[in-house]
Batch of 2 targets.
Target 1
Amino acid sequence: MTQDLLSDSLRLFLGSAGGTLLQGTEHLSSSDLGFSTLLSAAPSENLIRALRKNGYARRHSFVVIPSRSVPRWLVPIGEPAETVAGTRIYEPHMWGARLIKKLLVSMFRAGWRGWPYSNVVLASKERSALDTLVSEVTGEPRPVFALSLGRQPAVRKLTIQVMRPGGQILGYIKTGLVPSAIERVRAEARSLERLSCYPRLRSQIPRLLHAGKVEDTYVLFQSALYGSCGPTRFGAVHDDFLNRLSQASPSAVPARKLVGDIAIKWASTLQYLGEDWPHLGNEALRRSSEALTDAELRCGIVHGDFAPWNTRIVGERLLCFDWESAAWDAPLSWDAFHFHITSARLNRQKKLVLPRSEMTDEGTFILYLLKSVMQFVEEKNETAVRYYRILLLNAFRGEQVWVECPGANSRGPG
């Protein structure tokens, strides 16, 4: 990550309201005043006074975490409650990250405003397009924002947490920093629109508040899901949610068709992989084809990234967000596979434990692994590709651990 990432993200956040200028000093010059929007990486008290005096009425102050040279999150500086609420844009599940965040939140509650070299100020003489959108959708005239700059450069999104003064979260805006990410934002908007047609799911997914062009980019604005971080281990709440999802739009897909579709996509992926992958892919397709033969797979709506970090829990009800990878005719077992794998990594399990049921046989599991590798290649996530290569080799050797999972049969055969 570089300074370009930070400035590009802030320019996207500000929009084209007269242009932006990266301002590195603490004084305004006459040439600066020609811009209706300014960005300062040296926000001294003198500069703040000068901005106010010269008509820059709308200002957003942020602390960049961990630093301006390695930006990941921008948390608003202002009232401590707003700053603390801004940290909700990052909800870690690993214990080390949770501890660091807990310490950081404690410092913000005590009034700490970040290190001087980690602060930035955005000032404008008029409303930005995003400011206007939020006011039109929510009625909030002076929204407060926190920003997340994403992790994977190939599909990097800008996610904006929208709040009222005081810290009440109103929703999240997403837009892409690269073309492939914009397509994912569009896909999530389409998914939320389709999912809203199923009454039994509405209370467990975000509401689509707005989707469309804002100036020169596409944005998605969705409601917030409240609750605590979802459990890191698969349980009854997950099974209940997947059961509801499976009943929304059930379908039966011939295994032969699914294998053929994946084979076509796999062929176009090979150019980005190492020399042993053609053999691994062909073996995966052969084994899944033999295991499934002429079966019809019970398919339907699949989240696509059903993982602890994309869930919240309220009482005994699981809520799920981040639907950009959703599919409508995929094997229903794939979400369970994905959750168990991510859960095993989060909990540092020595062995992968998967639910044993009629739905979760070797053929659909191997197809899931191959499909996932293709997605990780698109994201240029080499770490995940290496890990799933190990899982695929273990599956070939029959080294997966299959155990009974309570409720696993409730969604029927596949």
Note: Confidence is low (pLDDT under 50) at residues 402-414.
Target 2
Amino acid sequence: MSMITADRKGRALRAVENFTFQHPQLVGRGLGVLRAVKPVLRVGDVAIVTRYSDVREILSRDDDFTIGLYTPKMEAAAGHFILAMQSTPRYEHDVSVLRLAVPRSDLPRIQDVVDGVLDEIFADTAGRLDVVRDLTDKVPARLSARYFGTPGPDETTLVHWGRRIFREFFYNIRNDPVIAGPSAEAATGLVQHIGENITARNGRPSGADDVLDRMLQLKIDGHLGVDDAWVTSYLFGMVVGMLPLTSKATALAIDVLLDRPGMLAGAQEAARTNDDGLLWGYISEAMRIAPQSPGQFRLAEGDWTIGAERGRSYTIPAGTRVMAATQSAMFDRRVFPHPREVRTDRPASQHLHFGYGLHSCYGRYISYQAQIPRMVKALLSQRNLRRADGGAGQLAWQDAFPDSLTVEFDPS
């Protein structure tokens, strides 16, 4: 294949991939067809699994269907951290140590930080706001600075680093060098930045009592394996895992709400009356309608059979790249009755917003109990919320991530 032909093919494939991310509802309808007529579709060395029970089976059999597609990229960028590990003694050790630095008991503090950032954001508005750039990007970036201890050279750089690295790790399954190059530069920048933060504290806690401080204290206390490289790897992993997806999931949920007047009115009423449980029900449905990703990829490490316990079976050969289509699974009427209806009382345990199994999102409570609902609530509490006129009021994209969405409201 000539270089020109290869370049054209690469551009075409990137365009298809970007379309997939930028039109989640259309993709969902396509996956729904597969779920009905071909629940496990194999095309070459890729298999798309679309039924709820099969998706959960794939994600729960982490020794059979591994994260081997991601691990080499992660380790090359920032060393070992739990996103890149299978269930091993080292994984168990690192998770237990990480919980000392990022305990769930910090949730009230995290919520206070988020509330403070939201106060800053809405104090600066004059009835017009870019949902992505002024809200869903800023909140996790400032939480990264004030809670994790990783402020970035500036917020925009930190956000762009996170997007480029995340895209390479989790979306670039075919190893496109056009995506890999900018990601490598971003990873180098983030690793250096975290190293500079450690150096600025002379490798010791500064008294800030943020996550970086706690990790440095763990190092001083002599916890096995905790050194500057460990601290760097885990701060790197938390920044990359939190910023892009928190922003993307929130922006997409808001876009869905703005598209549906009845759904928006119900969510606004819940926000104004502080019915946080009902509000999360609306947000969960919006995230189900337009999720941040159609699914998660796994690598079949052997010739495996799925579905056997349910009276049917599918064989997936070793080396197959398996997409567990979580988006499709959350529209499977066997688990989600009347899936196209908005129902705010669906059991939270059935949702797959944050994955399932060993590699479900480690910091999901930071997202669903602090950042996402608080960002949405702050915006929906504004009077006469509406899209801005013209193209500014439509969700714009930069490759696989939302980039802009302008709304207007009556100033308080």
Note: The domain at 3-384 is CATH 1.10.630.10 (Cytochrome p450).
